[in-house]
């Protein structure tokens, strides 16, 4: 556990900590937060394997590279930005958040004044009246690129060119501005349609020696400093020698698979979000990585298809959302019979559940490595390594799904059976 001198004993304060609910652990000094997370992972994972010491941050503030704010206005018309009070449509005004990138917060503060001077009305979720719904800002840790996504209820921003000019004048560090149209009654932030107002429509960042393109709707780890360490550990645990056939499941923009590709024979990535898959394919090209292929599909379905056609793999990385993986996926992993499974998780509860399932079906948990990706919040990231036992083990349940594997079979590489 490491924390910079000073931060470990300090308790942070925020004027909206009660109403916002984003920082559940603000009342605890950082070292105590780490100890609490360590205990939680130990409780869930120690029944299966050794839990190593959690890796904390040296400077645990301002780590969020993705910042999201909604807009509202006072009775006198003053525009305010903030976040939704938990479980409600009420917006708690937040000017400066301890976890967010300071550049993003400064842009949002100025956006409020600009919206007001351009007489752009804030959207009301209950009445459906108004134009601007949210802003999403992504800052690239290494390259310094900044993306501003303005989420509007309709595809028209009045005085668009002047608005963009004024915003860029105040913040020349912004490298791209995108208008996203969300005209549905939904609590989802982003809609489907995007119009690039300035720049290339995405940002690029670097992680573990690769460069990644990140589109507004693609997933990207929000804590870049910790992600470097997390991925480096995951790839080290995979024990790659240059020959392996690797699966990167729930691959997002291809980060783990592309970093691993340099040390592997072949990498197959699968991801549900079409924008992320597009980013992944371009990322492979941009980094000159040729031994990878990416598929847009449900990870479980895709793996069932691979298993049914008798494919094999040497290493499987999986990095699913909070809900964890499913039995279709896990039972197919067992049939693909990789030597090692490297499970990266943002929810130790579903991690423990899935590790327990794999442990029953021939995969021996070798250890668990927690990472503090989200200081001051209750969330915990962790990696578990599982190794195939020698005894043959067959899963008792196979989930049969109808498959849409055409893309997969069309690929020449993928046709090659081991
Ligand atoms: N490995 C990536 C992304 C991890 S986040 C990274 O570290 O950046 C989890 C990813 O799983 C998201 O990109 C999400 O779009 C994707 N996802 C969610 N459900 C899925 C499913 N059923 N099948 C495949 N991918 C899924």
Briefly summarize what is shown.
The protein has 418 residues and is of the alpha/beta class. The chain has twelve helices and 16 strands. The structure holds S-adenosyl-L-homocysteine.
What does it look like?
The radius of gyration is 23 Å and the shape is globular. The protein has two domains: 64-206, Beta Barrel (OB fold (Dihydrolipoamide Acetyltransferase, E2P)); 223-417, Rossmann fold (3-Layer(aba) Sandwich). The chain has helices at residues 17-20, 30-45, 102-117, 160-170, 224-238, 255-261, 274-286, 299-308, 327-336, 348-360, 406-410, 412-415, and strands at 66-73, 79-84, 91-93, 132-139, 146-152, 176-181, 193-198, 203-207, 210-214, 245-249, 266-271, 292-296, 315-318, 340-345, 363-371, 381-388. The two termini are 43 Å apart. The chain is built from twelve helices and 16 strands. Helix 3 (102-117) runs antiparallel to helix 4. The strands form three sheets. The chain has a seven-stranded mixed β-sheet. The longest helix is centred in the first third of the chain and has 16 residues, at 30-45. With 418 residues, the chain is an alpha/beta fold. Bound molecules: S-adenosyl-L-homocysteine. The site of S-adenosyl-L-homocysteine has 18 residues, from helix 6 and strand 11.
